[in-house]
Specification:
InterPro entries: 6-hairpin_glycosidase_sf, 6hp_glycosidase-like_sf, Gal_mutarotase_sf_dom, GH65_N, Glyco_hydro_65_C, Glyco_hydro_65_M, Glyco_hydro_65_N, Malt_Pase/Glycosyl_Hdrlase. With 734 residues, the chain is an alpha+beta fold. It is built from 16 helices and 29 strands.
């Protein structure tokens, strides 16, 4: 399989509003991100986001309670690194700018943009901007600005500097998806030489600090004054480079030395090498629809850009493309984004799980604050590991995040067999979450049945809050108990005394086994489907007259208590559990559940459609699967949710990959057998993708009549491989 030349341009996006384009064409590397602001008219004091660089402010409640989250955590929007000031030699500023072309090369990470600049006097020139962000050298970003004469052919005076933020008016929004003002940091800026500016920023509350350096690589002149002469009919290029230090470090650069060893061309090479490696491991091609093929590559491009790589940061809900959701990390990582990395970049997956391990002490504190005597409860939304959700019914009450993290640890180990990670970090997380469920749940005798239940919880469906026995929550908690037993035995195989440091033994495993057997999973005998919770099916359905487009998303138009009274789901909930545990139910039951819950789901969450696509494929309805998949694959490129300007929908980007892999190719792993099943819709003539199982890179190819799995690098895996229900022998491509 050969990688095509993939480019995203203005012709490939549905909206040309500036804020939307800033998101779509953003560049990032897991450490920091640069929104594609218009270099002339964009906001010079916002546009750069550093993963995990945040400020706090007290949460104000009308009536606060014990255990409520106390502090907002908000990612800081730092100055725009792209901004530039251009004037004629006679002092006429180029104040307006029209973006006439954009080309984002998904195979190299190079971004090329074309602008027409204009003064109030009507003078015009053309600006071509080329930029790249370091992917292996993650502290660097660079850009060149090439000027060409329009109807103006004289001299230009160009200057560039990092601006100091000014007080901005807080814009109050009822939309919880948007960010909030976090207060101004302490900023110090100094020109350490004529071609090098140092910008140091420190947060007032969190005491984080970072130093940014801006330098010009073009000889002659200074940052504040570069003279360009357009009268000779040739193009003139100025090149600038930015160094974004690691948080907490007092970065210094000798002003007498070159700003850095990497020119823009070196950064472009660094970026190109990184992306070549990404596509070698995880290339996907979708035959029959070039727009869809491009959309999938864009989604994976942005997913790789967003992921923290240092074990201290994670993937924010909007990545590093925007400050929506305040830069918080959610369960989205483990359930929607981490699978892509588990099956394509296991080193990255390990680092993302390591972030959760770093927050385990605060998770233990959170469990105690909520009156649970043992175990740990991970924060629902957070940057530093502390809970930052000011609305607990749809936040903290989503206890399922504990089991989501445990599930992800299990899936990572299932593929990698990384027993070192399990012994050092993973088992402790799974054990602590199992202890939480053990203490949080309660026994309930119903007739002759003794059930272990979980009360007053919220499942993935945020339109149904504080209920008893949410099916998804209970099923994942059951898995959490089962997983801690399984991993304990894996540790004991590696070290007969390996459990001693965790303070548990065989009697504790027996307790977990008993709990797992008795976790209650609600089921409707009348409808013969799993019940979303104890009360969901008894509620009235959402009124038809309130189901018109202008009423969606419901959370922006109705009080939560209004929504909670009805049988209405924001997203896949019980069906999400059906996706995670395909062995639990027959195709006939899946069809019943799918039909029922599809009728009460609004898909107001961007996390929903990918799951509906996967399950439609599994139950033999590839056309419906394709319908949902199209919305998933192109969500941001068509601005489906109408809020891409606040940042990309990162969980949906991961979901689009899952829909292809788990849906159309029927992929899942169970009992050391890798399963594939061909569910390709007629609209897709050919699907190929790569994934890594243990040390083996597999290539899977599907057409309407064939399903082929081959090993393209590494050994033949010891896992069994099943295609359409039949075990096969793998061959290695020579």
């Amino acid at each position: 399989m050969t990688l095509r030349d993939y480019h995203l341009t203005l012709h490939d996006v549905a909206d040309h509003q500036p804020e939307y384009l800033e998101t779509i064409f953003s560049l990032a590397n897991g450490h920091f991100g640069v929104r594609a602001n218009d270099p002339i008219t964009g906001n010079p004091i916002t546009g750069t986001l550093i993963n995990g660089f945040y400020e706090t402010a007290p949460i104000t409640y009308g009536e606060a309670g014990i255990g409520y989250a106390t502090q907002h955590q908000t990612i800081l929007n730092l100055p725009d690194l792209r901004h530039i000031h251009v004037a004629t030699a006679t002092g006429h500023d180029f104040t307006t700018s029209e973006r006439t072309g954009v080309d984002l090369d998904l195979t190299t990470g190079a971004l090329v943009e074309h602008y027409t600049l204009k003064t109030l006097q009507g003078e015009t020139i053309t600006l071509t901007m080329k930029s790249a962000i370091g992917q292996k050298q993650t502290s660097f970003w660079a850009a060149s600005y090439q000027f060409t004469a329009g109807n103006y052919t004289g001299g230009l005076v160009v200057s560039k500097a990092i601006a100091v933020p000014a007080e901005a008016e807080a814009i109050v929004s009822a939309d919880p998806r948007k960010t909030r003002m976090a207060g101004l940091p302490i900023c110090e800026t100094k020109f350490v030489s004529r071609d090098l500016q140092r910008y140091h920023v420190k947060t007032r509350q969190t005491k984080q600090a970072v130093t940014i350096y801006l330098g010009i690589l073009t000889e002659g002149g200074s940052l504040l004054r570069q003279v360009v002469d357009l009268s000779d009919d040739s193009d003139h290029t100025l090149t600038y480079e930015v160094y974004v230090g690691e948080m907490g470090q007092q970065n210094t650069i000798d002003p007498a030395a070159p700003f850095m060893a990497n020119s823009l061309s070196a950064l472009l090479a660094d970026s190109r090498d990184f992306w070549q490696d990404v596509w070698n491991r995880s290339e996907v091609t979708v035959g029959g629809n070039d727009e869809l093929d491009l959309a999938i590559h864009y989604n994976l491009f942005q997913l790789n850009q967003a992921a923290g790589r240092d074990g201290r940061t994670n993937i924010a809900a909007k990545g590093l493309s925007g400050s929506g959701y305040e830069g918080h990390y959610f369960w989205d990582t483990e359930m929607y984004m981490l699978p892509y990395f588990i099956y394509t970049n296991q080193k990255m997956a390990r680092q993302l799980l390591l972030y959760r391990y770093q927050t385990l002490p605060k998770a233990r504190q959170r469990a105690r604050a909520l009156g649970v005597s043992q175990g740990a409860l991970f924060a629902w939304r957070t940057i530093n590991g502390e809970e930052a959700s000011a609305y607990f019914p749809a936040g903290t009450a989503q206890y399922h995040i504990d089991a989501d993290v445990a599930y992800a640890v299990g899936k990572y180990y299932e593929i990698t067999r990384d027993i070192d990670f399990i012994e050092q970090c993973g088992f402790e997380m799974v054990l602590e979450t199992a202890h939480f469920w053990e203490s949080f749940g309660s026994w309930h005798q119903v007739g002759t049945q003794n059930r272990f239940e979980f009360h007053t919880v919220t499942g993935p469906d945020e339109y149904t809050a504080l209920v008893n026995n949410n099916y998804y929550t209970n099923r994942l908690a059951k898995h959490n108990f089962e997983l801690v037993i399984y991993l304990a035995h894996e540790i004991l195989k590696d070290d007969p005394h390996g459990l001693e440091k965790f303070g548990i033994g065989t009697p504790d495993l027996d307790v977990f086994e008993n709990l797992a057997r008795h976790v209650y999973l609600p089921y409707s005998q009348e409808l013969r489907i799993n019940e979303q919770d104890d009360s969901f099916l008894s509620k009235p359905r959402w009124p038809v007259d309130r189901s018109t487009p202008e009423n969606f998303p419901l959370l922006l138009h109705y009080h939560p208590l209004t929504i909670y009274r009805y049988q209405i789901a924001k997203q896949a909930d019980t069906l999400l559990a059906d996706y995670l545990f395909p062995e639990d139910l027959s195709v006939s039951q899946l069809k019943r559940e799918y039909h029922y819950y599809e009728g009460v789901t609004t898909h107001d969450s961007s996390l929903s459609r990918s799951i509906f696509s996967i399950l439609a494929a599994r139950m033999g309805d590839p056309e419906k699967a394709y319908h949902y998949f199209m919305d998933t694959a192109q969500m941001d490129l068509v601005n489906l949710q109408k809020n891409t300007a606040d940042g990309l929908h990162l969980a949906n980007l991961g979901g689009s990959w899952l829909a292809l892999v788990a849906g159309f190719s029927g992929f899942y792993v169970q009992d050391e057998v890798v399963h594939f099943a061909n569910h390709l819709p007629k609209e897709i003539t050919r699907l190929t993708y790569r994934m890594k199982i243990a040390e083996s890179v597999l290539e899977i190819e599907l057409t309407a009549t064939t399903t082929n799995v081959t090993v393209i690098s590494g050994p033949i895996p010891t896992y069994g491989v099943s295609v359409n229900g039949h075990l096969i022998s793998l061959e290695k491509v020579s």
